[in-house]
Amino acid sequence: MNSREATLVATATAFGALASAIALRFFFNRSRRQPSRTNFSQNGTVSTPPDPFDPSRRHGYLSWDDYFMAIAFLSAERSKDPNRQVGACLVSQDGIILGIGYNGFPRGCSDDKLPWAKKSRTGNPLETKYPYVCHAEVNAILNTNHASAAGQRLYVTMFPCNECAKIIIQSGVSEVIYFVEKRLDNPDIAYIASHKLLSLAGVKVRKHQPLMNEIHLKFDEH
If residue 138 lies in a helix (H) or strand (E), which one and from where to where? Predict the structure, then answer.
C-alpha cells in the first residue's frame, strides 16, 4: 500500500468514526426525549397515564348539560338535509333520555322521492323541503315510546320555530335548552313568535353554555 492509499484509508476511517458518533448521539438524545408512554386528552394536550392506585374520580368528564347537548348534536348527524342538520334530545327531570330526533321526512316517505332543496327554480314551494320535513323537536317528542313529555327538558341544537314551539307547549315540556338561534341579526317572524309563545306559556328558555369546546369520538378497540 503506497502513501496515497494509506491516506485515503485513514481519511475514510476518520469519517466513519465521526458519522457513527453523530448517529449514536442523535439516537441517544431522541430516546431520552421520548417518554415511555404518551396519552392525549380530548383537547390534544399530552397527559400522564392514570395512577392505578389513585382512588379519586377522573377530571374533565362531561357535565350533564354538555352530555345531553352532545346527544342532540350526534342525532343531527343522522339528518340527510344537505343544508341544515338539527338534533334534539328530550330528557326527564331525573336525567333520563326519553327521546331523540333529527330533521327529516316522516316515516315511510322516501328520502329520494321528496326534494331537499331550500328554493325552487320555478317558485313552486312543493319543490322545496319545507312542506314535507318533520323538525327535530317534534321527532324527539314523538319518539318517547309513550312516555309523557310533561315537565321534561328539551335540548335542541337550534332554537325552535313557532310551529315547533306550539308542539313543545302542548306536550307540556317545561324547559328548552338551545345551542344557537337562527338569524339573530335579522330575526324571522317565526322565531319572534316562538319566543313570545314560550314566554306566555311559562316554558323556561336558556342558551347552552358549553364547558368544553369540542368532543372527539373515535371508534377503536381499547
Answer: helix 136-142
Burial class (CB in 10 A: 0-12, 13-18, 19+), 21: exposed
2 or 140, which is more confident? 140
Strand segments (E) across 18-167: 39-40, 46-47, 87-91, 97-102, 153-158
What pLDDT was estimated at residue 165? 96
Task: For CA atoms 187, 190, 193, 199, give the dihedral sign.
Answer: negative
Amino acid at 172: G
- pLDDT tens digits, 101-132: 999 999 999 999 999 999 999 999 999 999 99
- Between CA 164 and CA 151 the distance in angstroms is 17
- Angle, CA 190 vertex, CA 174 and CA 77 arms, to 5°: 70
Cell output for 25: 448521539
Beta-bridge partner residues of 5:
none
Contact present, 86 and 136 (Cβ < 8 Å): yes
Tell me whether residue 137 is one of the annotated catalytic residues. Answer: yes
Of the residues 5, 77, 127, 137, which is catalytic?
137
Strand pairing of 97-102 and 175-180? unpaired
- 128 DSSP β-pair partners: none
User: Does the CA dihedral 118-119-124-127 come out positive or negative?
Assistant: negative
Query: Is 172:143 a contact under the CB 8 Å cutoff?
Result: no
Residue 221, C-alpha cell as written in the block: 378497540
Place of cell 421520548: 34
Length of the chain in residues, anyone?
Answer: 222
